[in-house]
TrEMBL record:
Coiled coil: none annotated. It holds the Pfam family GATase_2. This is glutamate synthase (ferredoxin). SUPFAM superfamilies: N-terminal nucleophile aminohydrolases (Ntn hydrolases) (SSF56235).
Amino acid sequence: DISIVGYYAKETMPNIQQVFVRVVKEENIDDIERELYICRKLIERAVKSETWGNELYFCSLSNQTIVYKGTLRSEVLGNFYLDLKSDIYKSPFAIYHRRYSTNTSPRWPLAQPMRLLGHNGEINTIQGNLNWMRSREASLKLPVWRGRENEIRPFGNPKASDSANLDSTAELLIRSGRSAEEALMILVPEAYKNHPTLMIKYPEVVDFYNYYKGQMEAWDGPALLLFSDGKTVGACLDRNGLRPARYWRTIDNVVYVASEVGVLPMDESKVVMKGRLGPGMMISVDLTSGQVYENTEVKKQVALSNPYGKWVNENMRSLRPVNFLSATVMDNEGILRHQQ
Protein backbone atom coordinates (compact mmCIF):
# COMPACT_ATOMS: atom_id res chain seq x y z
CA ASP A 1 0.00 0.00 0.00
CA ILE A 2 2.07 2.90 -1.36
CA SER A 3 -0.17 5.61 0.10
CA ILE A 4 1.50 5.41 3.51
CA VAL A 5 5.08 6.01 2.29
CA GLY A 6 6.65 9.37 3.21
CA TYR A 7 7.54 11.99 0.58
CA TYR A 8 11.33 11.40 0.36
CA ALA A 9 11.04 7.64 0.71
CA LYS A 10 8.57 7.61 -2.18
CA GLU A 11 11.08 9.52 -4.36
CA THR A 12 13.59 6.67 -4.02
CA MET A 13 11.17 3.79 -3.67
CA PRO A 14 12.15 0.80 -5.80
CA ASN A 15 9.84 -1.41 -7.82
CA ILE A 16 9.15 -4.22 -5.31
CA GLN A 17 8.39 -7.72 -6.54
CA GLN A 18 7.89 -11.01 -4.77
CA VAL A 19 9.10 -13.91 -6.86
CA PHE A 20 8.33 -17.58 -6.20
CA VAL A 21 10.91 -20.18 -7.17
CA ARG A 22 9.74 -23.74 -7.77
CA VAL A 23 12.18 -26.38 -6.56
CA VAL A 24 11.93 -29.22 -9.04
CA LYS A 25 13.65 -32.03 -7.18
CA GLU A 26 13.13 -32.49 -3.46
CA GLU A 27 16.58 -32.03 -1.93
CA ASN A 28 17.49 -31.35 1.66
CA ILE A 29 16.98 -27.82 2.96
CA ASP A 30 20.68 -26.94 3.02
CA ASP A 31 21.19 -27.97 -0.61
CA ILE A 32 18.20 -25.91 -1.73
CA GLU A 33 19.47 -22.90 0.25
CA ARG A 34 22.93 -23.30 -1.31
CA GLU A 35 21.46 -23.48 -4.81
CA LEU A 36 19.39 -20.33 -4.21
CA TYR A 37 22.47 -18.57 -2.80
CA ILE A 38 24.51 -19.40 -5.92
CA CYS A 39 21.58 -18.34 -8.10
CA ARG A 40 21.39 -14.94 -6.40
CA LYS A 41 25.15 -14.43 -6.61
CA LEU A 42 25.14 -15.20 -10.34
CA ILE A 43 22.28 -12.74 -10.97
CA GLU A 44 24.04 -10.03 -8.94
CA ARG A 45 27.20 -10.56 -10.98
CA ALA A 46 25.33 -10.64 -14.32
CA VAL A 47 23.64 -7.26 -13.73
CA LYS A 48 26.85 -5.50 -12.65
CA SER A 49 27.58 -4.43 -16.22
CA GLU A 50 24.15 -2.82 -16.59
CA THR A 51 23.70 0.88 -15.84
CA TRP A 52 21.01 -0.04 -13.28
CA GLY A 53 23.15 -2.90 -11.92
CA ASN A 54 23.62 -1.49 -8.45
CA GLU A 55 19.90 -0.81 -8.11
CA LEU A 56 18.87 -4.47 -8.01
CA TYR A 57 18.64 -5.88 -4.51
CA PHE A 58 17.37 -9.20 -3.15
CA CYS A 59 15.93 -8.81 0.35
CA SER A 60 15.96 -12.59 0.58
CA LEU A 61 16.03 -15.63 -1.65
CA SER A 62 15.49 -18.51 0.72
CA ASN A 63 13.12 -21.35 1.49
CA GLN A 64 13.44 -20.67 5.24
CA THR A 65 13.08 -16.93 5.76
CA ILE A 66 11.42 -13.89 4.20
CA VAL A 67 12.78 -10.37 4.75
CA TYR A 68 10.66 -7.22 4.51
CA LYS A 69 12.44 -3.86 4.32
CA GLY A 70 11.56 -0.27 3.83
CA THR A 71 12.44 3.34 4.49
CA LEU A 72 9.33 3.57 6.63
CA ARG A 73 8.16 4.64 10.05
CA SER A 74 8.16 1.66 12.42
CA GLU A 75 4.45 1.39 12.97
CA VAL A 76 3.51 1.35 9.28
CA LEU A 77 5.61 -1.63 8.14
CA GLY A 78 2.63 -3.95 8.65
CA ASN A 79 0.36 -1.62 6.71
CA PHE A 80 2.78 -1.26 3.80
CA TYR A 81 3.27 -5.01 3.20
CA LEU A 82 -0.23 -6.45 3.16
CA ASP A 83 1.10 -10.00 3.74
CA LEU A 84 1.81 -9.00 7.33
CA LYS A 85 -1.89 -8.25 7.95
CA SER A 86 -3.07 -11.66 6.75
CA ASP A 87 -4.37 -14.13 9.34
CA ILE A 88 -3.21 -17.13 7.33
CA TYR A 89 0.38 -15.93 7.31
CA LYS A 90 2.15 -17.46 10.30
CA SER A 91 5.76 -17.80 11.45
CA PRO A 92 7.37 -19.40 14.51
CA PHE A 93 9.65 -16.37 14.91
CA ALA A 94 10.15 -12.75 13.87
CA ILE A 95 13.13 -10.42 13.94
CA TYR A 96 12.08 -6.80 13.79
CA HIS A 97 14.63 -4.02 13.59
CA ARG A 98 14.13 -0.29 13.45
CA ARG A 99 17.27 1.73 13.05
CA TYR A 100 18.35 5.28 12.45
CA SER A 101 21.24 5.31 10.04
CA THR A 102 24.34 6.90 11.47
CA ASN A 103 27.27 6.00 9.24
CA THR A 104 25.36 5.43 5.98
CA SER A 105 22.60 7.56 4.48
CA PRO A 106 19.21 5.77 4.62
CA ARG A 107 18.39 3.73 1.52
CA TRP A 108 15.78 1.06 0.88
CA PRO A 109 18.29 -1.82 0.47
CA LEU A 110 20.16 -0.81 3.65
CA ALA A 111 17.07 -0.96 5.87
CA GLN A 112 17.49 -3.63 8.53
CA PRO A 113 17.29 -6.55 9.07
CA MET A 114 19.68 -7.93 6.48
CA ARG A 115 19.26 -11.47 5.09
CA LEU A 116 20.27 -13.31 8.26
CA LEU A 117 21.09 -10.59 10.79
CA GLY A 118 19.61 -7.58 12.48
CA HIS A 119 22.50 -5.44 13.71
CA ASN A 120 22.36 -2.64 16.26
CA GLY A 121 25.70 -0.81 16.41
CA GLU A 122 28.58 -0.63 13.98
CA ILE A 123 31.59 -2.69 12.99
CA ASN A 124 34.67 -0.62 13.73
CA THR A 125 37.15 -2.96 12.04
CA ILE A 126 35.29 -3.07 8.73
CA GLN A 127 38.13 -2.00 6.41
CA GLY A 128 40.45 -4.69 7.76
CA ASN A 129 37.66 -7.29 7.71
CA LEU A 130 36.92 -6.55 4.04
CA ASN A 131 40.61 -6.75 3.11
CA TRP A 132 41.01 -10.09 4.88
CA MET A 133 37.92 -11.50 3.18
CA ARG A 134 39.30 -10.39 -0.20
CA SER A 135 42.62 -12.08 0.53
CA ARG A 136 40.83 -15.40 1.18
CA GLU A 137 38.75 -15.42 -1.97
CA ALA A 138 41.22 -17.27 -4.16
CA SER A 139 41.98 -20.02 -1.65
CA LEU A 140 38.51 -20.89 -0.36
CA LYS A 141 37.50 -24.42 -1.32
CA LEU A 142 34.97 -26.76 0.22
CA PRO A 143 33.40 -30.03 -0.99
CA VAL A 144 29.82 -28.76 -0.46
CA TRP A 145 30.30 -26.19 -3.23
CA ARG A 146 31.20 -28.97 -5.71
CA GLY A 147 33.80 -26.86 -7.47
CA ARG A 148 31.45 -23.87 -7.89
CA GLU A 149 33.35 -21.51 -5.57
CA ASN A 150 33.99 -19.15 -8.48
CA GLU A 151 30.28 -18.53 -8.80
CA ILE A 152 29.92 -17.16 -5.26
CA ARG A 153 32.83 -14.69 -5.34
CA PRO A 154 33.31 -11.87 -4.36
CA PHE A 155 32.42 -12.31 -0.68
CA GLY A 156 32.63 -8.65 0.39
CA ASN A 157 31.33 -5.42 -1.08
CA PRO A 158 33.15 -2.17 -0.19
CA LYS A 159 30.11 -0.16 -1.37
CA ALA A 160 27.75 -1.91 1.06
CA SER A 161 27.34 -1.02 4.74
CA ASP A 162 29.24 -2.67 7.60
CA SER A 163 26.08 -4.59 8.60
CA ALA A 164 25.58 -5.85 5.04
CA ASN A 165 29.17 -7.13 4.86
CA LEU A 166 28.99 -8.87 8.22
CA ASP A 167 25.72 -10.41 7.09
CA SER A 168 27.15 -11.68 3.80
CA THR A 169 30.14 -13.23 5.60
CA ALA A 170 27.81 -14.96 8.07
CA GLU A 171 25.76 -16.13 5.08
CA LEU A 172 28.86 -17.59 3.41
CA LEU A 173 29.75 -19.54 6.57
CA ILE A 174 26.19 -20.80 7.10
CA ARG A 175 25.72 -21.82 3.45
CA SER A 176 29.07 -23.63 3.70
CA GLY A 177 27.52 -25.92 6.30
CA ARG A 178 27.98 -24.23 9.68
CA SER A 179 25.21 -23.60 12.16
CA ALA A 180 24.16 -19.99 12.71
CA GLU A 181 25.53 -20.06 16.28
CA GLU A 182 28.90 -21.40 15.11
CA ALA A 183 29.15 -18.76 12.37
CA LEU A 184 28.50 -15.97 14.89
CA MET A 185 31.03 -17.38 17.37
CA ILE A 186 33.67 -17.41 14.62
CA LEU A 187 32.90 -13.87 13.47
CA VAL A 188 32.22 -12.20 16.81
CA PRO A 189 34.25 -14.09 19.45
CA GLU A 190 34.09 -13.21 23.12
CA ALA A 191 37.13 -11.98 25.05
CA TYR A 192 38.21 -15.53 25.92
CA LYS A 193 41.89 -15.10 26.85
CA ASN A 194 42.49 -15.50 30.62
CA HIS A 195 38.72 -15.77 31.08
CA PRO A 196 38.51 -17.49 34.49
CA THR A 197 35.20 -19.35 33.92
CA LEU A 198 36.11 -20.54 30.41
CA MET A 199 39.69 -21.59 31.25
CA ILE A 200 38.56 -23.72 34.19
CA LYS A 201 35.04 -24.92 33.35
CA TYR A 202 34.87 -24.85 29.55
CA PRO A 203 38.39 -25.30 28.11
CA GLU A 204 36.84 -26.74 24.91
CA VAL A 205 35.35 -23.28 24.16
CA VAL A 206 38.80 -21.71 24.49
CA ASP A 207 40.12 -24.38 22.09
CA PHE A 208 37.38 -23.44 19.60
CA TYR A 209 38.35 -19.75 19.70
CA ASN A 210 42.06 -20.58 19.50
CA TYR A 211 41.44 -22.73 16.45
CA TYR A 212 39.55 -20.01 14.59
CA LYS A 213 41.63 -16.97 15.58
CA GLY A 214 44.10 -17.82 12.81
CA GLN A 215 41.36 -18.20 10.23
CA MET A 216 38.99 -15.32 10.92
CA GLU A 217 39.80 -12.03 12.62
CA ALA A 218 37.11 -10.59 14.90
CA TRP A 219 34.48 -8.32 13.41
CA ASP A 220 34.61 -5.89 16.27
CA GLY A 221 31.56 -3.94 17.42
CA PRO A 222 29.82 -2.37 19.34
CA ALA A 223 27.28 -4.86 18.03
CA LEU A 224 24.08 -6.48 19.20
CA LEU A 225 23.20 -9.12 16.62
CA LEU A 226 19.91 -10.95 16.22
CA PHE A 227 20.15 -13.81 13.77
CA SER A 228 18.17 -16.59 12.17
CA ASP A 229 18.63 -19.07 9.34
CA GLY A 230 15.05 -20.28 9.77
CA LYS A 231 16.13 -23.27 11.86
CA THR A 232 17.33 -21.41 14.93
CA VAL A 233 16.85 -17.88 16.11
CA GLY A 234 19.19 -16.16 18.53
CA ALA A 235 21.00 -13.07 19.73
CA CYS A 236 24.58 -12.28 20.69
CA LEU A 237 26.61 -9.36 21.89
CA ASP A 238 30.18 -8.63 20.80
CA ARG A 239 33.03 -8.71 23.31
CA ASN A 240 32.83 -4.97 24.05
CA GLY A 241 29.23 -5.37 25.19
CA LEU A 242 28.27 -1.75 24.56
CA ARG A 243 24.71 -2.40 23.37
CA PRO A 244 21.84 -3.36 25.68
CA ALA A 245 20.04 -6.70 25.23
CA ARG A 246 17.38 -8.10 27.58
CA TYR A 247 15.59 -11.42 27.29
CA TRP A 248 12.50 -13.05 28.79
CA ARG A 249 10.87 -16.44 28.50
CA THR A 250 7.21 -16.98 29.33
CA ILE A 251 5.28 -19.97 30.60
CA ASP A 252 3.64 -20.42 27.15
CA ASN A 253 7.13 -20.94 25.67
CA VAL A 254 7.67 -17.62 23.96
CA VAL A 255 11.15 -16.10 24.08
CA TYR A 256 11.54 -12.34 23.72
CA VAL A 257 14.78 -10.47 23.17
CA ALA A 258 14.78 -6.68 22.96
CA SER A 259 17.21 -3.86 23.37
CA GLU A 260 15.21 -2.33 26.24
CA VAL A 261 12.74 -3.39 28.91
CA GLY A 262 9.14 -2.51 28.04
CA VAL A 263 9.48 -2.67 24.25
CA LEU A 264 6.80 -5.36 24.14
CA PRO A 265 3.69 -5.55 26.32
CA MET A 266 4.08 -8.61 28.54
CA ASP A 267 2.20 -10.27 31.37
CA GLU A 268 4.80 -10.32 34.16
CA SER A 269 3.06 -13.24 35.90
CA LYS A 270 3.86 -15.47 32.90
CA VAL A 271 7.62 -14.79 32.93
CA VAL A 272 9.65 -17.86 33.95
CA MET A 273 13.13 -16.64 33.01
CA LYS A 274 14.68 -13.25 32.46
CA GLY A 275 18.18 -11.96 32.01
CA ARG A 276 20.43 -9.76 29.95
CA LEU A 277 23.24 -10.50 27.56
CA GLY A 278 26.66 -9.45 28.81
CA PRO A 279 29.77 -8.91 26.63
CA GLY A 280 30.34 -11.87 24.29
CA MET A 281 27.20 -13.70 25.41
CA MET A 282 24.62 -15.53 23.29
CA ILE A 283 21.14 -17.01 23.59
CA SER A 284 19.50 -19.22 20.97
CA VAL A 285 16.29 -21.14 20.36
CA ASP A 286 15.99 -24.30 18.29
CA LEU A 287 12.81 -23.70 16.29
CA THR A 288 12.14 -27.39 15.63
CA SER A 289 12.49 -28.69 19.19
CA GLY A 290 11.55 -25.45 20.96
CA GLN A 291 14.63 -25.83 23.15
CA VAL A 292 16.14 -22.63 24.59
CA TYR A 293 19.92 -22.52 25.06
CA GLU A 294 21.59 -19.91 27.22
CA ASN A 295 25.15 -18.73 26.75
CA THR A 296 27.32 -21.59 28.09
CA GLU A 297 25.04 -24.29 26.63
CA VAL A 298 25.29 -22.77 23.13
CA LYS A 299 29.07 -22.35 23.36
CA LYS A 300 29.63 -25.87 24.74
CA GLN A 301 27.46 -27.48 22.07
CA VAL A 302 29.32 -25.74 19.25
CA ALA A 303 32.79 -26.27 20.76
CA LEU A 304 32.25 -30.01 21.29
CA SER A 305 31.14 -30.61 17.69
CA ASN A 306 34.81 -31.13 16.64
CA PRO A 307 38.08 -31.95 18.48
CA TYR A 308 39.39 -28.37 18.20
CA GLY A 309 41.92 -28.74 21.04
CA LYS A 310 43.47 -31.79 19.36
CA TRP A 311 43.65 -30.00 16.02
CA VAL A 312 45.35 -26.97 17.57
CA ASN A 313 47.90 -29.12 19.46
CA GLU A 314 48.73 -31.23 16.42
CA ASN A 315 48.92 -28.46 13.83
CA MET A 316 49.95 -25.24 15.56
CA ARG A 317 53.57 -24.26 15.02
CA SER A 318 55.15 -21.53 17.08
CA LEU A 319 57.67 -19.12 15.59
CA ARG A 320 60.49 -18.06 17.90
CA PRO A 321 61.04 -14.29 17.91
CA VAL A 322 64.37 -13.09 16.55
CA ASN A 323 66.20 -9.88 17.38
CA PHE A 324 65.51 -6.80 15.31
CA LEU A 325 68.29 -5.25 13.23
CA SER A 326 70.06 -2.52 15.13
CA ALA A 327 69.76 -0.04 12.22
CA THR A 328 67.35 0.34 9.28
CA VAL A 329 68.50 -0.80 5.84
CA MET A 330 66.01 1.25 3.82
CA ASP A 331 65.02 4.90 3.77
CA ASN A 332 61.82 5.87 5.56
CA GLU A 333 59.76 6.08 2.39
CA GLY A 334 60.78 2.58 1.32
CA ILE A 335 59.98 1.19 4.75
CA LEU A 336 56.54 2.78 4.76
CA ARG A 337 55.78 1.38 1.29
CA HIS A 338 56.73 -2.13 2.38
CA GLN A 339 54.76 -1.88 5.61
CA GLN A 340 51.64 -0.76 3.76
